[in-house]
Amino acid sequence: MTRILRFLKPYRKQLALVMLLLLVQAISNLYLPDLNADIINNGVAKGDTNYILQHGGIMLAVTLLLGIVSVISVYWASRTAMAFGRDIRHAVFSRVQSFSLAELNHFGAPSLITRTTNDVQQVQMAVVIGLNVMVLAPFMAIGGIIMAIRQDPPLSAIIAVVIPVLGIVVALLMRKALPLFRTMQKRVDRVNQVMREKLAGIRVIRAFVRSEYEERRFDVANRELSETMLAVGRLFAIMMPTVMVFFNLTLVATMWFGGLRIDSGAMPIGNLTAFLTYIMQILIAVMMATLMFVMIPRASASADRINEVIETKPKITDPAEPVVPLVRSGIVEFRDVEFRYPGAEEAVLCGISFTASPGQTTAIVGSTGSGKSTLINLIPRFYDVTGGSLLIDGVDIRQMTQAELWSRVGFIPQKAFLFSGTIASNLRYGREDATDEELWHALEVAQAASFVRALPEGLESPVTQGGTNLSGGQRQRLAIARALVKRPEVYVFDDSFSALDFKTDAALRSALARDTHDATVIIVAQRVSTIMQADRIIVLDEGRIVGSGSHEVLMDTCQTYREIVRSQLTEEEVA
Amino acid sequence: MSENTTTTSAVPAGRRGGHGPGRGGMMGGGGHGLMAGAGAKSKDFAGSLKRLAGYLKPERVMIAVVIALTVVSVGANVAGPRILGKATNVLFEGVVGKMMGEQLPPGTTQAQAIQMLRAAGQSQIADMLSGMTVTIGKGVDFDAIARWLLILAGVYVLSALFSWAQAHLMAGVAQRIVYRLRKEVDEKLARLPLKYFDENPRGDTLSRVTNDIDNIAHTLQQSASQIITALLTIVGVLGMMFWISPLLALISLMVIPLSVVVTMFIAKRSQKQFAAQWERTGTLNGHVEEMYTGHSIVKVFGHQAEAIEVFDKENDGLYQAAFRAQFISGTIQPSLQFLNNLNYVGVAVIGGLRVASGRLTLGDVQAFIQYSRQFTQPIVQTASIANVLQSAAASAERVFELLDAEEEVPDTATPVHLAKVEGHVEFRDVVFSYTPEEPLIEGVSFEAQPGQTIAIVGPTGAGKTTLVNLLMRFYEIQGGAILIDGVDTRDMTRDELRRTFGMVLQDTWLFKGTIRENLAYGREGASDEEIMAAARAAHVDHFVRTLADGYDTELDDDSSNISQGQRQLLTIARAFLADPPILILDEATSSVDTRTEALIQQAMARLMKGRTSFVIAHRLSTIRDADLILVMNHGAIIEQGTHTQLMAAGGFYSDLYNSQFVEAYDEAV
Description:
The structure holds two protein chains of two kinds. Chain A has helices at 12-44, 49-98, 101-107, 109-151, 157-200, 202-207, 211-263, 269-310, 372-378, 402-408, 423-427, 436-445, 449-454, 472-486, 502-515, 528-531, 551-557, 559-568, 571-574, and strands at 332-339, 349-356, 361-366, 387-392, 395-396, 409-412, 421-422, 462-463, 490-494, 520-524, 536-541, 544-549. By secondary structure, chain A is an alpha/beta fold. Chain A has two domains: 4-179 and 232-310, ABC transporter transmembrane region fold; 332-574, Rossmann fold (3-Layer(aba) Sandwich). A six-stranded mixed sheet of chain A has the order 6-9-10-3-11-12, with helices on both faces. In chain A, β11 (536-541) and β12 form a beta hairpin. In chain A, α1 (12-44) packs antiparallel against α2 (49-98) and α5 (157-200) runs parallel beside α8 (269-310). The longest helix of chain A has 53 residues, at 211-263. Chain A is elongated. Chain B is α/β, with parallel strands linked by helices. Chain B is built from 25 helices and twelve strands. Chain B has helices at residues 32-36, 45-54, 60-103, 110-119, 123-130, 142-191, 194-199, 202-244, 246-293, 295-300, 304-330, 332-356, 362-373, 376-383, 385-404, 464-471, 494-499, 515-520, 528-537, 541-546, 564-578, 594-608, 620-625, 643-649, 652-668; strands at 425-432, 441-448, 453-457, 479-484, 487-488, 501-504, 513-514, 554-555, 582-586, 612-616, 628-633, 636-641. In chain B, the strands form three sheets. In chain B, strands 6-9-10-3-11-12 form a six-stranded mixed sheet. Chain B has a four-stranded antiparallel sheet with strand order 2-1-4-5, with no helix packed on it. In chain B, α22 links the parallel β9 (582-586) and β10. In chain B, α3 runs parallel beside α8 (202-244). The interface between A and B is large, with 185 and 175 residues.
């Protein structure tokens, strides 16, 4: 928690101001009962009307001051806390932007989203309240004690008894409440989860006639949640009356002992009224401070989760002295590349050497775990090689800036990802100054022109977040068109044709071949028909290249390749 | 002092929102009441609340008890300051008596003392004295004070006990109602047609079951009893005030409408800001989600700088909105405090004057000040009641909307039971469409003999879902009939009909739980041996055994810890276990490596043996060997026949076949 507070540093001045204002508030708040005591002692008891009016005027002035000061302090406290939240969000977001795939996958996108939004919200809220309660409570408590002692020192002994007892009572209740809260959160999550699964799998549930089973499953989650919520509700039912009865009995005790003091002539009667007010202020302050301790672990957990992100250094960074390749032709060379996950015994890729040249299509096939996806993820430097080197246009990609590298690479992932906006804005993602003609051309090549044309708004048709208003095949084709608009030197297709039917797949491939004839094309595919006519097919097995060459050559020489082909086409078709 | 005492601004605004479980009561900051209303508005406010109240009916005895307890608790609480005032009076009278006793000879009566004071020109003190019961020379009557204080302690303990009992019972009431509501909604979901789930976004339905019901729960448990307490407190306190001094009460009374107006005025403004804040939060979260999930695309297209730029813009917008919301709602407390203090000064001054003139006792003024301090909280609570109720009504309405959604046509009362399903499937002049404007299937007929394979062919997304929807009776057909072994599917129960089908679709669905649990989903009560046999048949037994926990391996929420191919094999195993006479399979194996794909195909082939199978076909061999090919396009069945027949017809199929498969075939040769 303390580490996250460094984000408050730029707002030192504002914080100091808020503190000062809170101090003024505390003092004025404490001054009011004092004035009131004066009115009773010197005005009421002596029947001095002028005194009452005069001091009443002062009280009013103090109150007005208090109001103004409160508004100003709320203003600056809100401003500071919100700016604090904004700065943390910025820090988290920028840091995530610099992450490579390794760091991103380490956290997982959903977790990172929560950290950027909810967790920051939690910490921010803690600061908002902290700026009010955490600062004001000690002021009020200490100030209240000083004022109470001023009224009558011996009577103040009550405070010494009451505060620790209250602290213990609240702490005990909290100790019971905290685990309950955690359980409840878990059970709320459970209900949500069961319901989400139900909704996602409604067809399967019905197909397997498991509605009753699901109902029982939900009922268990529901009942457990209700039980916990009941326990929490009942704990709260005890909590408030307990605290209140404690307050009130303190009041009674103060009255009794105060009476004795007054009777002995040691204390004027007006002081008793003020004393009562002070003691209440102290107790409330102590209670609020105790409750704050409940918030701290929660905000602290969030702060830790945020810190984890901010303090993660991306492993892949730009070199200090980047090299700019002399040519821009798109030659991709793997030179004895090895890749292993940190700490893994076996390398995912090992001894990979090949060169993909402009004007050529290089296809990569192999079974799961053979390392195909990993191999092409190395090209845009989503991961760094752990051995050997990967060169583009003769320069090790670790020696050039990432921007330089990415400007040469068009990457089409397995799962097409579109951004919310319009079709045009998505297509221009790689090159903002592309003309409409260029967009249409890319769409033609990607076999997407006909469906885009059929849309009422054409290029300006809206795309929802994640492209959910388009079919999987449409998204895939748009993702391909997007890469085409960018006109990179190297195209990397990560099994990007799988969502397309054979007909579209075939048409797209032949159009693509025409359009990318001077670019380097690297394709990973499951379907043999997709890659059969590639200039070179690289067959991977368990991270090693076991075959390389054209379809015909590999059919003759590579057992693994033959197996793959056989599994997809029947004997007669292969023959 | 009462539960609502706000002596200082140290009490955060959040307390107003109640100390709700799980809401982080103290975290409320802007106050629950203010934020809740920022969301949806209900369309039929009164109607929804009335219906919600219907849920309270079975609890009416309990609720009556709760209200009775609240009345006692609030009553005792309100009586407190008055009793304390009595004790103060005794004390004050004792002090004055003692003071007088020092100046006057013992035995002087109060009346004599007053006369003497007037004679001495101290008429003001004389006036004050005339309003008291003083025995000159006698000190403080501690017996009397002890009596009053004991009563006071008793009253406070009583109030606390009743308040505890009240909240304890109310928690039970609220939880029972919410449990029932959740259960009802869940049971309702089982009776809704699939159409409902297809038409309504999942997140929306989920939110009705969770957020909306939570909101109702919170209102019932916290706000309801809070409002009752608040209203009773206002009435009680006002009564006490008028009893003590109608004049002072009138002054305090003026504060109420003023406070309400101020609260409403500010709340209305802050609500707008909170709405803006939520909207901004939504936009920002949307952007974050998009940028994080599309991380690699953002990078490869070199868009990080733009992403941060957009983020900063949205972030700053959120900052502005959040700050305004926080600030405006933050001014409520000081404003009310100012009004309250105004009242305090008024009471002190006028009360002081009246004590001095003997028309009021000091204890009365003290009690009055306490009462006026107890006033703010219940007023704020009452002022926010509209928002709380509005929000609860909106939530209730959304839940009721779900509960009122049109249900499936009920199963026939006299279902036909098929002892053994052979697997004969017939479509007889089937007419179907999702919307009346777009007819989809008009009079389609075909017949599948037991054990036959029916291939479904067509461009991507051509309507496999439709076929599944009809066969499984997820949707109702509008004309004709679908028959299984000669029985109209509508003459069977849905459960029985669906048990005759096995589905192995590409969008596999596994839930969080162990592999064993997931497999056993195919048949309730399957033994371990049966589960493993099914896994072996689906070629997934070996894979499962290579996992550290074997069949007890927990699958993640989205089953991301096993590959797509393994998932598909698991669903095949599940179908083996279910052993249905009719199958619906999807051959598509995208994102599956070739070896696993081969395994899947073998497993599928084995599964299909002896069963009538509808196969969404992707493989040439499957299509050509099929007993019947259904050619689908845009959701409709446009051609049907065997491969030879369809090729001879030279229609859509032969076009499709020539363009798709021949090329691949030629190249392969």
